[in-house]
Amino acid sequence: MARVEYQASLDALEASLQEQGEVVMRAVRGAINAMQAQDVELCDEVIAFDDEIDVRYHRIEKSIEELLAQQAPVATDLRIVLAVLHNSIHLERIGDQSVTIAKLTKLSADLETRHDLVEGLGEMGDRAEHMVRVALDSFADRDIEEARALVELDELIDRTNRRVVDQVLQMAAAPGQQEWGMRMIVVARCIERIGDNAVDIGEQTAFVVTGEFSEFTDASH
Amino acid sequence: MTTPQIDSARIAEVAQPVVEDGRGRETVFDVKNLAVSYSGNVALEDVTLDVRKNFVTAFIGPSGCGKSTFIRCFNRMNDLIPGAVVDGKVLYHGRDLYGSGVDPVEVRRRIGMVFQKPNPFPKSIYDNIAFGPRVLGMKRDLDARVERSLRQAALWDEVKDRLKDNALGLSGGQQQRLCIARAMAVEPDVILMDEPASALDPISTSRIEDLIHELKQQFTIVIVTHNMQQAARVADMTAFFSVEVREDGTGRHGILVEHAPTTKIFTNPSDKRTEDYVTGRFG
Fold it and tell me: What is the complex's ipTM, to 2 decimals?
């Protein structure tokens, strides 16, 4: 195998992405747990933890800048480098969604909750976390089938999201619950976006393997 | 609220940059089942490929893959090597370059060549350019022809005040542009370049590359290069040649592995051997 240093840099880059993914998954789990338990302390931890994600994102970006400048990757190598950069941004955004969930939970900490809605949001959170796991594994394994399976998983989140919105709309008449309901619609939206970002990562897996980029689903979904 | 009716397949199509593969352009060279051997030793086997008009076509590959042997078939330079035998067909605008009645001198007027090492004649700058036209009887407006050639080679401004100076006094990069100007002075159709920048510094190299971009408006260019990034920068089409070891143990010879738009070769080549070579995993 020629270009030993170069291959080591590419391997290190992929390892950094997976590490960023692990950190992001902890943020997602923390945000969902905090939301379910209305745990303000945990919310603060999730918010502070975002710096860890950002640092990793910037490290990956810097590594890619150096790799492009020094090694001029082409063909599959180039696609891997581009995909890692995209995926790192997608993960960073998942981290941001987790922060937003934590902030909204803090704002709603003293408000009356509804058990069935919290349960629905928890279910969405579990699915989103699972999707990020699948997205990261499919990228590591270059497994297009697994990546494509994310579309169906995303559909389940979208469905739960619609159910949550319907439930909140029904709560509109119930005094004292509107504010909490409105905030939880945004939380549901954040979780739904995490699913979308996981699908985006899956699309990068397909790009690396096939050399062609295509959206798994169109905008009407 | 209406659902936007957007067809994702259509979006991908619009977003894809247009990669021209030369179809629809005139074929300048149509090479069929070409094989070259030197004194019975096969150097290159079974190459089929076409070269399109006003395209830059690059040949890349490891040492010994036959890319220089191949480019020399385009203007019958192999005729000058004792023992060289060319089999198969090289059609130039539909006409067999190796057919009987084809004059190699006329072939080399239409299909000029620039070599790795600049090789100006030990004459004045002016006479270097005027030499070919004089030999070929193109003597009308010779001054204008010399100026035009030097301008086309982006050398005029640097030499216009010293046309009578010896060409060997020019820098390496200037000498190479002089050789390109010399090739253009006889109004060729094609310019072959065999590693034209490998002996030059980076600035001279980038001048030659800029020049190639300009010249393809007017000429068809075929270039052999060891520098893959150079192929990526200048070529529209790239052909990757490799070395194949013969199963019977009688030696090795060059083969054409893949010929495709340059963007395809460097982003998503079809053949694993191409991928290994362009990513530097070869050998």
Answer: 0.78
pLDDT given for residue A221 in this prediction: 58
* Å between A141 CA and nearest CA of chain B: 19
Q: Is the pLDDT of residue B135 over 70?
A: yes
- Look up the pTM and report it: 0.84
CATH number (3.30.70.920, 3.40.50.720, 1.20.58.220, 3.30.2350.10) of A4-210 reads 1.20.58.220
b/e sequence A40-65, b meaning 16+ C-beta within 10 Å: eebbeebbebbeebeebbeebeebbe
Domain residue spans of chain A: 4-210
Nearest by CB to residue B278, choosing from A2, A75, A220, is A75
**Average pLDDT score over residue span A123-133:** 97
Mean pLDDT, range B199-228, rounded to an integer? 92
pLDDT of residue B90: 97
Band of residue B200 on the pLDDT scale cut at 50, 70, 90: confident
B7–chain A Cβ distance below 8 A for any pair = yes
pLDDT, tens only, A59-70:
999 999 999 998
A151 touches chain B (CB under 8 A): no
Chain B positions in Cβ-Cβ contact with residue A78 (cut-off 8 Å) = 266-267
CB contact under 8 A, B229 and A219: no
- What is the distance in angstroms between the Cα of B2 and the nearest Cα belonging to chain A? 10
Q: What residues have CB less than 8 Å from A177, skipping those under 6 apart?
A: A111, A112, A114, A171
Domains of chain B, CATH where assigned: 18-278 (3.40.50.300)
Nearest chain A residue (CA) to B282:
A2
Between positions 48 and 107 of A, the ones with CB within 8 A of B are 72-79
CB-nearest to B267 from A72, A211, A215 is A211
Checking B156-161 for CB contacts under 8 A at 24+ apart, the result is: B159/B125
pLDDT score recorded for residue B267 = 93
Give the β-pairing of B84-92 and B252-261: unpaired
Alpha helices for A108-143 (secondary structure H): 115-141
Give the N- to C-terminal CA distance of chain B in Å, as an integer. Answer: 60
What is the mean pLDDT of the segment spanning B74-94? 94
B66: left (phi over 0), alpha (psi -120 to 50) or beta: left
pLDDT at B211 > cutoff 80: yes
Residue B2 has pLDDT above 60, yes or no: no
Tell me the HSE value of A179 on the side-chain side, using a 13 A CA sphere. 10
| Candidates A2, A75, A218; nearest CB to B268 | A75
- Select from A75, A78, A220 the Cβ nearest to the Cβ of B3: A220
Read off the DSSP letter of residue B95.
E
Residue A205, amino acid: T
Q: Which two tokens stand for residue B272?
A: 């694993």
